Amino acid sequence: MARTQRNLALARESSGTETDLYEVRKKIHPRAVHGWFAGWRWTLVWATQIVYYGLPWLTWNERQAVLFDLAARKFYIFGFVFWPQDVIYLTVLLVISALALFLFTAVAGRLWCGYACPQTVYTEIFMWIEERIEGDHTARKRLDAAPWDARKIALRAAKHGAWIAFAFWTGFTFVGYFTPITLLGGELLSLSLGPWQTFWLLFYGFATYGNAGFMREQVCIYMCPYARFQSAMFDADTLIITYDQKRGEPRGGRSRAVDPRAAGLGDCVDCGICVQVCPTGIDIRNGLQYECIGCAACVDACDQVMDRMRYPRGLIRYSTENAIDQGLTRAEVWRRMLRTRVVLYSVVLLAVTATLGAALYARIPLKLDVIRDRAALVRETPEGRLENVYRLQVMNTEERAHRYRVSVSGLDGLELVAAQPLEIPAASTVTVPVSVRLDPAGHPAGSHPVVFRVESLERPEITAHAPSRFFVR
């Protein structure tokens, strides 16, 4: 009866024994570690969070520098204004991100997971808050085992209060990318947030609180698909976190004065610190596992033990399968990294990135769409001329007003009837009705191609063309 209350999925084998299909999560209290890789990890934490929390407060041309205004269907990114018609740029950006992930994974494994993934970054921040309030990993374990008293309640309340405040600020910043953050702050203070703003603030804040505060390694192990297909992007020359079994085995404890070779031991003193610092709780000495996020905490921890034992560093290190098996030098490892797939990824990534940069540089801040009046394909004027009516949708994507001149070509004798010049405000779209007239003499009946042209009077190089049809009867 007690076993059925443990919330475990069980399967009965033919022998009558029971096998657990999954086990209850054991809470992990990673030990703090310092070192070269830990320094890089915290550098990335600071860099990513300064960007995330700081960008919404930057201004550009008297508006928020980065703002995704869904209501107005405009995305402002510093000096650029993107519209739904510019979705191709988002597509190319996603392609670049995928290629970069393929490249970095082929070169050095799960660099993204270990250093820049939001789950890793926020877990680091939440664990830092936890350590400041509850103490180091040993103190946290003791607190978990201690009975509930005033001290435990106070510490847990302080920790969760700090977590909730940080998660709330994270959700507020997220919504601030879609609603001007100064306006959002005023609405928050006056308790007048809209329903969708309230929902996403609470949803994103709750997701941060739950994922970084409670689920932690469970997200990386069970929820993230990258852990499952990463092996398809690895090969024998990919840099991964590896334990040098040839050097470390057989492992065993000893004093610093003992010669490990004389004692028949490897360099591993079996201290277990590499397991204690692992955020997913694995033992890297058992080989590469999909739970490993490549944070290199075990590398820093093992190097510190090797320093204390006066052994060479690198028992656990970034290396490759071929380097471990064949005893390759560092220079040979780096040479083998420049293999076909890495070169191919690099070339394609550079080409796509350069193409995107060139496209943005040459981007014309003017778009034109022509819509025919379908109520009447063609009509005759009192003067006996044929008239077709159109609606021009002129989009000025630049953050300054422009005056434009409209013209039409394609048939001899076309006459455009429209208000000239067109005044289009900054970053806006205006629909302009125009009509085109033609003397039918000398023109066969039917549909004829014409082209509308819009040209900026201030900057003649800014032009847009759009095709349409002119009907003659």
Low-confidence stretches: 1-17
CATH topology of one domain: Immunoglobulin-like
Cα(first) to Cα(last) distance is 89 Å
CATH architecture of one domain: Sandwich
Give the full name of the CATH homologous superfamily of one domain. Answer: Immunoglobulins
Strand content: 15-25%
Judged by helices, strands and strand pairing, the structural class is alpha+beta
Radius of gyration: 32 Å
| The CATH C-level class name of one domain | Mainly Beta
Note the overall shape. elongated
Q: How many β-strands, per DSSP?
A: 18
Mean pLDDT: 89
Helix percentage range: 40-55%
- DSSP helix count? 16
Main pleated sheet: 5 strands, antiparallel
Question: What can you see in these coordinates?
Answer:
The chain has 473 residues and is of the alpha+beta class. It contains 16 helices and 18 strands. Strands 10, 11, 12, 14 and 16 form a five-stranded antiparallel β-sheet that branches. A four-stranded antiparallel β-sheet has the order 15-13-17-18, with no helix packed on it. It has a three-stranded antiparallel β-sheet with strand order 5-6-7, with no helix packed on it. Strand 11 (379-380) and strand 12 (386-396) form a beta hairpin. It is elongated and about 110 Å long.
